[in-house]
């Protein structure tokens, strides 16, 4: 039995090392420029205008090559988003600062060895929210679609720009959607 397990482990290790050019792991971190948009943002009978806020994101990613010019890039990120809410005609301003575990799955089209176009869906799970926010009933799940550009500086180092637009309302009360512009730097191993 031990010989079968040892042989299996050796075969898996050999398979992973021989396929290393098709599968890479990496880290990335960067800045978020986030906002929350809606047609009529009303919270607790007060009308608001939103302003974008700067935050951060950090996480892990993988790249799975599916061809010469095409690959998939699943990611797991901790992403802080939100907006500053300015009350119209009232002094009830607040900042909606929220943290998500975001799972984007980007399709990558490699234009050449330096540039790739990235696009795909993203699911985000609410992890934290600032305590002084008066938005009740905030949903725990947010879906979005993202698109962007990656610049490969070296084989391992890259810069990335991405825009993610929310497809679902984050709260039935406020009727707003997340939007975030992300600029990242990362390292593939």
From TrEMBL:
The alphabetized UniProt keywords are: Signal
Residues annotated as transmembrane: none
User: What InterPro entries does the record tag this protein with?
Assistant: Beta-barrel_OMP_2 (IPR025665), OMP/PagP_B-barrel (IPR011250)
Domain Outer membrane protein beta-barrel: where?
A: 19-170
Signal sequence span is 1-20
Protein name, UniProt field: Outer membrane protein beta-barrel domain-containing protein
């Amino acid at each position: 039995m031990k010989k079968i397990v040892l042989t299996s482990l050796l075969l898996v290790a050999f398979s992973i090392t021989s396929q290393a050019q098709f599968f890479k792991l990496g880290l990335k971190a960067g800045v978020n420029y986030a906002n929350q948009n809606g047609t009529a943002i009303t919270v607790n009978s007060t009308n608001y205008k939103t302003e974008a806020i700067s935050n951060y994101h950090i996480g892990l990613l993988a790249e799975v090559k599916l061809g010469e010019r095409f690959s998939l890039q699943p990611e797991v990120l901790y992403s802080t988003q939100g907006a500053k809410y300015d009350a119209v005609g009232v002094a009830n301003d607040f900042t909606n600062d929220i943290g998500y575990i975001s799972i984007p799955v980007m399709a990558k089209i490699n234009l050449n060895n330096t540039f790739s176009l990235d696009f795909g869906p993203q699911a985000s799970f609410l992890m934290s929210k600032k305590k002084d926010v008066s938005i009740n009933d905030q949903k725990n799940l947010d879906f979005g679609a993202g698109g962007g550009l990656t610049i490969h500086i070296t084989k391992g180092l890259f810069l990335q720009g991405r825009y993610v637009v929310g497809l679902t309302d984050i709260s039935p009360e406020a009727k707003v959607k997340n939007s975030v512009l992300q600029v990242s730097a990362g390292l593939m191993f």
